[in-house]
Amino acid sequence: MQTTASGPEQAEEKATRTDICAAPPPRHPRPDGQDRYTISEVAAFTGLTAHTLRWYERIGLMDHIDRSHTGQRRYTNRDLDWLDLVGKLRLTGMPVADMVRYAQLVREGDSTYEERRELLEATRRDVLARIAELRDTLAVLDRKIDFYTEARTGRAAKRTR
Amino acid sequence: MQTTASGPEQAEEKATRTDICAAPPPRHPRPDGQDRYTISEVAAFTGLTAHTLRWYERIGLMDHIDRSHTGQRRYTNRDLDWLDLVGKLRLTGMPVADMVRYAQLVREGDSTYEERRELLEATRRDVLARIAELRDTLAVLDRKIDFYTEARTGRAAKRTR
DNA sequence: TATGACCTTCGAGTGCACTCCAAGCAAGCG
DNA sequence: CGCTTGCTTGGAGTGCACTCGAAGGTCATA
Questions:
Q1: Are residues B29 and B99 in the same domain?
Q2: Domain shared by B102 and B149, yes or no
Q3: Which of A108, A135, A153 is the last residue of a domain?
Q4: Which domain holds residue B12?
Q5: A77 shares a domain with A55
Q6: Does B27 map to a domain?
Q7: What is the separation, in whole angstroms, between the first and last Cα of chain B?
Q8: What's the whole-number mean pLDDT along residues B67-83?
Q9: Which of A4, A88, A92, A125 to mutate to test the interface with B (most CBs of B within 10 A)?
Q10: CA of B35 and C1' of D27: distance in angstroms?
Q11: Spatial separation of the C-alpha atoms in residues A35 and A152, rounded to whole Å
């Protein structure tokens, strides 16, 4: 389905994993035009490794990717959109098996709309819950950071770990 | 491994591990009073297994826990507080190794305040970033859910909340 | 005094999500 | 032509965070 206006933060996170550079959004402009990207182009664009892209295909997380006359993978913009969604779902902590399930439903056609909606709604609830947890954690972190900051500036406070 | 009799705490542990349900606080009231909890009490309270609690101690994520005269672990309220923090940090995706590092700093005493503060601030930034990512993902999910919902009702209401 | 729940240790096993390897084919370049 | 680079495959290896097993000790209750 549609792409997103989604952000550089995905590419950025991936980049952080491989290089240590974090400053400028290393957003590879999607090489628009011909809709037939090699695996290394897609790797550069998504931040995933070529190994991982092949693995995604093997486990059924992606449809069989189109091949060139010599058997090399040629990814389409549609594939890139799908990878974008997969990246987002991955951020939510959704297990790969569940994403594979969703991919299967998509392959099975329109009759699976209802089940897809349910799966997405369950995911949505998870995301909401996780955001709440993180906010909670943030409050704890802030309290501790305050403690250490105050200790630094000389004020006494009670001992925390 | 014939532990069927201890039903409630096992069921509880399973539940905590599988659903990340956040609605009703399933908070075991902390058994206040004597400050000397057995490992299974702590397991029931935290949702971790006894195995995991021993493992945390082995890897240095917890101080050496006090023992009874027969060598059994006796956890204090202070240990419970620490486990609470560990649980929160775990939710942020912080690697166990980093938590061990923090635990070491705590053991090393007041001179490590500054480093602890830095570690916590880095974590805080991570948490903020993750919340932003999740919000972004939520927007994508909502758009897709809308699509499926409209497909079902043949064009209908838009989602609120 | 014996049963059975619960505890101890160390070390090995599990599941997930990659991550890498080896062998081999194909294309572009000097 | 040989060299380099990059792609293909199936299968094996890695790192993390647990998770479990085996062998045995302890303790309250019947």
A1: yes
A2: no
A3: A108
A4: 8-108
A5: yes
A6: yes
A7: 47
A8: 88
A9: A88
A10: 20
A11: 56
Spell out, as residue ranges, where chain A has pLDDT lower than 70: 1-34, 154-161
Best probe of the B interface among A4, A20, A105, A117, by most B CBs < 10 A, is A117
Regarding whether B70 and B124 lie in a shared domain, the answer is no
Domains contained in chain A, number: 2
Measured distance CA(B56)–CA(B20) in Å, rounded? 22
Is A47 in the same domain as A89?
yes
Amino acid present at B86 = V
Within 8 A of A159 by CB-CB distance, chain B residues are none
What's the pLDDT at B68? 86
Note the helical H segments in chain A: 8-18, 39-46, 50-58, 77-91, 96-108, 113-152
B14 & B58 share domain:
yes
Task: Identify whether B2 is part of a domain.
Answer: no
CA–C1' distance A19–D8 (Å)? 27
- Residue B137 contacts residue A127 (beta carbons within 8 Å): yes
pLDDT at A101: 94
Q: What angle do CA B30, B34, B38 make, to 5 degrees?
A: 70
Q: What is the pLDDT of residues B141-154, one digit of tens each?
A: 999 999 999 888 76
% of residues, chain B, pLDDT over 70: 74
CB B26 within 8 A of CB B12: yes
Smallest CA-to-CA distance from B82 within B49, B106, B58 is with: B106
Give φ, ψ of A95 to 5 degrees. -65, 150
For residue B55, pLDDT over 50 is answered with yes
Rounded to the nearest angstrom, the minimum Cα separation between A107 and chain B is: 15
